[in-house]
Amino acid sequence: MAITILSARDCSRMRRAGAVARATLQAVAQSLRPGMATAEIDALVRRDTEARGGTPSQLGYQGFPAAVCTSKNSVVCHGIPSANELLELGDIINVDVTTRFAGFHGDTSATFFIGDPSPEARHVVDVAKRCRDVGISAVRHGARLGDIGASIEALAQREGCSVVRELGGHGIGRSMHADPHVPHHGCAGTGIRLKAGMALTVEPMINLGAADVLFLDDGWTVVTADGSLSAQFEHTVLVTREGCEVLTTPDCVRAGSAALAEA
Ligand code: MF3
Ligand code: CO
Ligand code: CO
After folding, report:
1. Pocket residues: Cβ below 6 A from ligand 1
2. Low-confidence stretches of the chain (pLDDT beneath 70)
3. How far apart are CA 110 and CA 68, in angstroms?
4. What angle do CA 234, 211, 171 make, to 5 degrees?
5. What is the pTM of this model?
């Protein structure tokens, strides 16, 4: 299918959607605490998104029953918030916020520590964040889709972690999920060429153990097959001639890898 090239006007709407999603994720970051149920994160995301004039994109998406994905420890992604699931000291938890605003979607996630992390937890979370950022630094007009995945996979392997292959990033705009699919593994110099005005997400899921995952029979939750920890970070980015514009950072960052290091 054709990949949308956003007009200047639609790019500014995407910036606004990205900013709203990011703000809600920051509100979550400030309220996470031990003893909190993941259902409380869901309630906060609904309230905060509404207060900002947005709507939670994930609520009801293909039947997804919540406004946010909460993925704890060995949950790779698409965890469903629950009143029975409490945050405990030593947990890691990814919170994935997607918000529709001004007709466009912003999609961002981060993995948080509850209390002091074990060295292993710290490692997988650190690697996941660096994998996202190295993937983003490969994004520019004329680069190939495979350049993103190759850079992520190389870093993860160097750090003794593995990259989940069954799920990837995606184009984003008027739809939450659009073409192209963005693999977080692969070969540099392969795949479609990125063009200025495309919007996509980079959201590698990084496992401390093996890459294999299982899909639970709730229809959503994805877990590591070996029970090892998994971490993820996600940004929505806009491809530009020079690099890309990260739409879901606190201060919108324009440029390539050098500027991103400070983001
Ligand atoms: N925000 C998720 C992503 O990054 C979308 C999850 S779809 C849901 O693509 F239905 F599980 F919410
Ligand atoms: Co996404
Ligand atoms: Co997301």
Report:
1. 58, 61-62, 64, 69, 78, 96, 98, 107, 201, 203, 220, 234
2. 251-263
3. 12
4. 35
5. 0.95
Phi-psi group of 189: left, alpha or beta (phi > 0 → left; psi -120 to 50 → alpha; rest → beta): left
pLDDT at 255: 38
Question: Nearest Cα to 148, choosing from 94, 212, 201?
Answer: 201
How far does the centroid of ligand 3 lie from the alpha carbon of residue 34, in Å?
A: 23
Length of the chain in residues, anyone? 263
Q: Which long-range contacts (CB under 8 A, 24 or more apart) does 160-163 make?
A: 161/123, 161/124, 161/127, 161/128, 161/206, 161/207, 161/208, 162/206, 162/207, 162/209, 162/210, 162/211, 163/131, 163/204, 163/205, 163/206, 163/207, 163/211
CATH number attached to the domain at 8-260? 3.90.230.10
Segment 170-203, tens digit of pLDDT: 999 999 999 999 999 999 999 999 999 999 999 9
Which ligand is closest to the CA of 200, given by its number?
2
Ligand number nearest to the C-alpha of 66: 1
How far is 216 from 222, CA to CA, in rounded Å?
A: 6
